Automatic annotation (TrEMBL):
PANTHER family per UniProt: PROLYL ENDOPEPTIDASE-LIKE (PTHR11757:SF19), PROTEASE FAMILY S9A OLIGOPEPTIDASE (PTHR11757)
InterPro entries, per the entry: AB_hydrolase_fold, Pept_S9_AS, Pept_S9A_N, Peptidase_S9_cat, Peptidase_S9A, Serine_Peptidase_S9A
SUPFAM superfamilies in UniProt: alpha/beta-Hydrolases, Peptidase/esterase 'gauge' domain
Keyword Hydrolase found: yes
Protease is among the record's keywords: yes
UniProt keyword annotations, A-Z: Hydrolase, Protease, Serine protease
Domain Peptidase S9 prolyl oligopeptidase catalytic residues, every copy: 466-691
Family membership noted in the UniProt record: Belongs to the peptidase S9A family.
UniProt source species: Chromohalobacter beijerinckii
Name of the protein in its database record: S9 family peptidase
Peptidase S9A N-terminal domain mapped to chain residues: 29-407
Length: 703
């Protein structure tokens, strides 16, 4: 192992530690940090930031090297894919030195007449944070509306600009992120929050009169509302959904003042969504079909469903997109943990179904932005761990594939020099856990490598392969990158999700550790140099795994980690809490409370050596409040400081570091350069912990 650089002692001089300085003897769990209005809270976080900065000082040259390397590998000036609508073609351009894009358009048949639609870079000049969450173009393309957050707390303002040269006007404040235009060219649908920041209602704004009216309100605290429009542009769809139940309401898009019509009233545990072709609705649902099936209904009676595509044991149907000629079905193979797109041609005697080809496996394949209802040329987005993102146009008539755009990659490590492997690890109960690995092809056979293991595993979210330019900085230095596709995620379909939630949540943590051990057993990972990474609910995954086996990892990064699970779930006034009951359980039920308490990371800390940790939080985070990583930092610092010196500070030291971004929300920095620099700091920490921080050429190397 390479020698680690000296990092100042954090726990030997506790009188200088923010934890020792701010400790309150009457509050051993540090709950006082939840009081945002207490000035000592900001002082504590700022001093923890200062401590982190001081500890990173020896690594700053490496941080800057990683950051410069990332910039050198990436095409900094980026033009987005051009998308034609009825009258204009739209695209974004990000200048080489800009954090944010400028949106442009030109008439469909005259590319020389370009005009600016929205300059996000200019709007961000006077803000530390900027997020444009949604944009909506009027059907006649005479105005643009968008939602904008300048704090990171996910409270959005609504702006509108008359095109082509009108001044932006703020129409509403403190609304939800989603927007949708009706087909009358004057009605804009948006969502509002309740007191817990739950989107609980859908509203219609008349942009000519400025008056708004509530269309739908959801009173059940476990349900969130959302909105959309069918690709046929005939129907507005209002959805109210919990984690396991949904209900849809329809409004004719041309007459948005029509009262919403419920498609089928909610039934506990039944999820459904729909798409439309003239004359019919297509309903994707899981009633008596745990992996989902596709039904059809007459447009006049959308609640009367007739089977169209049968339920299958080895597939989960994940999505349906309708076109004039038929459907595109997104489906997931349970056995191979691979997504597929199938084209279903309708208006024939029997539906004709065929799969589109994969560029490789495993890979990510999704239907790209294809707004034209009549097109027979699909835009597909493809990427993998070793394939940079690219956009393909697939002609359904000829099966010809045309490359529209590909992300270029520069530098000394080309994607062709990487290899990707899929391991299958045997879990404690005999289940097969997929583990993806990517590394340099010239190193993978040479023996165990220092390894970063990434995990999520909640909400049924999938970790389909994704390419990362930043990751190349680790791979080029000999690190293997691995992903544990644990239960609780959706990587092997709906059964995979159900096997890692509620009473089965422990499977997620044990699967993550199983993946770690399989990497060692297969000769991929060096048992003494494995680091873990988890963000948000992935922070819960990693935090719980560290409590179970703290010696399994030499280090971990927990980014905005959800670690105070029980206390959060016991507070229904916090954002997300009530909506999460069907994911984690309702702690008002004794058995659910016991289960949550048994794995909640902050409730299971014990006096044992923990690996070195880098914890990251955000002051404006409304999903995982800043105090969750702050509490973990404070309590782990106390635990480590009370261990015998030999355990507390083995060779190289085991610091617990906290860094809180005081100008960001759940997703971290909004500007791309700051986000990339934050990533470089994180990677420098990982390289240090993996013993590779001194494996550097001089910082002033030219090539």
């Amino acid at each position: 192992m390479k020698a680690q650089p000296h990092i100042p002692a954090l726990h030997d001089a506790t009188q200088l530690s923010p934890v020792a300085r701010f400790k309150r003897k009457d509050d051993p769990h540090w709950h006082w940090l939840e009081n945002r209005d207490d000035p000592e809270v900001e002082s504590f976080l700022e001093q923890a930031n200062a401590e982190s900065t001081a500890c990173f000082a020896p690594l700053e040259p490496l941080v800057e090297t990683l950051y410069a390397g990332h910039l050198a590998r990436r095409e900094l000036a980026v033009d987005g894919l051009r998308t034609p609508l009825d009258h204009h073609t739209y695209w974004s351009e990000t200048a080489h030195d800009a954090d944010y894009p400028i949106w442009w358009r030109h008439p469909n048949h005259d590319a020389s007449q370009r005009e600016c639609v929205l300059d996000v870079q200019a709007r961000a000049q006077h803000h530390d944070f900027m997020e444009v969450a949604d944009m909506a173009i009027a059907p006649d393309e005479n105005w643009l509306a968008w939602t904008e957050d300048t704090n990171g707390d996910e409270n959005f303002d609504l702006f509108l600009r008359v095109l082509p040269d009108g001044e932006p006007r703020r129409l509403l404040t403190d609304i939800g992120p989603e927007l949708c235009c009706a087909e009358d060219n004057r009605s804009l649908l948006f969502t509002r929050y309740d007191d817990t920041q739950r989107p609980d209602s859908v509203w219609r704004l008349d942009i000519e009169s400025g008056k708004s009216a509530c269309l739908f309100r959801e009173t059940d605290a476990e349900f969130w509302v959302g909105l959309g429009k069918t690709r046929s542009r005939a129907w507005l769809v209002l959805e109210s959904a919990s984690k396991d139940t949904s209900e849809c309401h329809l409004i004719p898009a041309a007459t948005p003042d029509t009262p919403p019509r419920c498609v089928r009233e909610r039934v506990k545990g039944v999820e459904y969504g729909l798409e439309h072709r003239p004359g019919h609705f297509y309903i994707l649902h899981n009633q008596d079909a745990p992996h989902f099936r596709l039904d059809i209904a007459a447009e006049s009676t959308p609640g009367d469903w007739t089977p169209l595509l049968d339920h299958q044991e080895h597939l989960t149907l994940e999505g349906v997109d309708a076109f004039a000629w038929g459907l595109v079905i997104t489906e997931r193979d349970h056995r191979e943990a691979q997504v597929h797109l199938s084209v279903v041609t309708l208006d024939t005697q029997t539906p004709i179904k065929r799969r589109l080809p994969l560029p490789e496996a495993p890979c990510s394949l999704i239907l790209g932005d294809t707004p034209d209802f009549d097109t027979r040329r699909l835009r597909l987005h493809e990427e993998s761990f070793i394939l940079p993102p690219r956009w393909i146009e697939h002609d359904l008539d000829t099966d010809e594939r045309r490359l529209l755009k590909a992300q270029p990659v520069h530098g000394d490590l080309a994607p062709e020099q990487l290899v990707c492997r899929r391991l299958w690890a045997e879990a404690h109960d005999g289940e097969r856990i997929p583990v993806s690995v990517v590394a340099r092809g010239d190193l993978i056979e040479q023996g165990p490598l220092p390894t970063l293991l990434y995990g999520y595993g909640a909400y049924g979210e999938v970790l389909d392969p994704w390419f990362s330019v930043a990751r190349l900085e680790l791979l080029s230095r000999g690190v293997a990158f691995a992903v544990a596709h644990v239960r609780g995620g959706g990587d092997r379909g709906e059964p995979w999700y159900l096997a890692g939630k509620l009473a089965h949540k422990e499977n997620s943590f044990r699967d993550f550790l199983t993946a770690r051990h399989a990497l060692v057993a297969n000769g991929v990972a060096d048992a003494h140099r494995i680091a873990a990474y988890g963000a948000s609910a992935g922070g819960l995954l990693v935090g719980a795994s560290l409590n179970l086996e703290p010696d399994a990892f030499c280090a971990a990064v927990l980014d905005v980690p959800f670690v105070d699970v029980l206390r959060t779930m016991e507070n229904p006034d916090l954002p997300l809490t009530t909506a999460e009951y069907s994911e984690w359980g309702n702690p008002n039920e004794p058995e659910a409370k016991r289960r949550i308490r048994d794995y909640s990371p902050l409730d299971n800390l014990v006096a044992q050596p923990y690996p070195t940790l880098f914890l990251q939080g955000s002051w404006h985070d409304s999903r995982v409040p800043y105090w969750e990583p702050a509490k973990l930092y404070a309590r782990l610092t106390e635990i480590v400081s009370q261990l015998p010196a030999a355990e507390r500070r083995p060779a190289g030291g085991r610091p617990i570091l906290l860094r809180t971004d005081m100008a960001a929300g759940h997703g971290g920095a909004s500007g791309r350069f700051k986000a990339w620099h934050d990533n470089a700091r994180q990677d420098a920490f990982l390289l240090w912990a993996l013993g590779l921080a001194d494996n550097e050429l001089p910082a002033d190397r030219a090539d």
